[in-house]
Amino acid sequence: MTEHVIPTPPTVTIPVADTDATFPVRRVYCIGRNYAAHAVEMGHDPDREPPFFFQKNPDNLDPSGEFPYPPQSSDVHYEVELAVALKSGGKNIAVEDALDHVYGYALSLDMTRRDLQGEAKKMGRPWEIGKAFERSAPVGPLRPVSEVGHPNAGTITLHVDGELKQEGDLNQMIWKVPEMISYLSDYFELAPGDVIMSGTPAGVGPVERGQVMKASLDGVDTLTVKVV
User: Fold this and answer.
1) How far is CA 70 from the centre of its chain?
2) DSSP state letters, 172-183
3) Which of 6, 38, 79, 210 is the most exposed, having the fewest neighbouring CB atoms within 10 Å of its CB?
């Protein structure tokens, strides 16, 4: 038996709603600017350009219900998103077969150190310093496909301290879930445990310590996260 030279890092998991089961996470892919209105508010053309992705770390996913305000930033933004959890994968997956690989869906937040991301953009550098910091992806419990089907429409919202900040509909996504899975599989070998965060509607903005964010998606779930 192989002996590890350090303690084995813990497996990152997402709880499965209303069960004691968990979903082990392998990788986290995030699509950028996938709602036209959000592309416009970020200063980009909303036309259907090829999708682009960045990654968060598996242990950025956090189901605790708390978001610790991160260091080295004074401008941290919320971005509410639908997360897609894969039960199988492969290469060159056809669009028409893509949904067969989905285990379930959850609400998530792509928290962003916007000031650090903006500096990285200006310097032509990667975004990880703004996107992939500790506990930067609050996530709710997974709802299996057997329970919620494959949501391709439905209102997705985010309230901060009871005030509506973001509102969109899944049918406004430029690249739909099957297309995202297929596109990613042309560049990466997808596998069980992969999670895809599917982009955010318009209305992103800053949060402060002590505020409470409440995300909601029709037919899927709600997610409440306190900034601490």
Assistant:
1) 18
2) GBSS-HHHHHHH
3) 6
pLDDT tens sequence for the chain (228 residues): 789 999 999 999 999 999 999 999 999 999 998 997 655 555 555 666 789 999 999 999 999 999 999 999 999 999 999 999 999 999 999 999 999 999 999 999 999 999 999 999 999 999 999 999 999 999 999 999 999 999 999 999 999 999 999 999 999 999 999 999 999 999 999 999 999 999 999 999 999 999 999 999 998 899 999 999
- Both tokens of residue 195? 């999670």
- Name the fold adopted by 13-227: Fumarylacetoacetate hydrolase; domain 2 (3.90.850)
Within a 13 Å sphere around the CA of 111, how many CA atoms are in the beta-carbon half? 28
- Residue 125: CB atoms within 10 Å: 12
- Quote the CA–CA distance of 74 and 131 in Å, as a whole number: 14
The C-alpha atoms of residue 69 and residue 54 are separated, in whole angstroms, by 22
Strands (E) in the chain, as ranges, are: 13-15, 22-24, 28-31, 53-56, 61-62, 66-67, 76-78, 80-86, 102-109, 112-113, 137-138, 143-144, 155-160, 163-169, 195-197, 205-206, 212-217, 221-227
In 3-state terms, what secondary structure has residue 49? coil
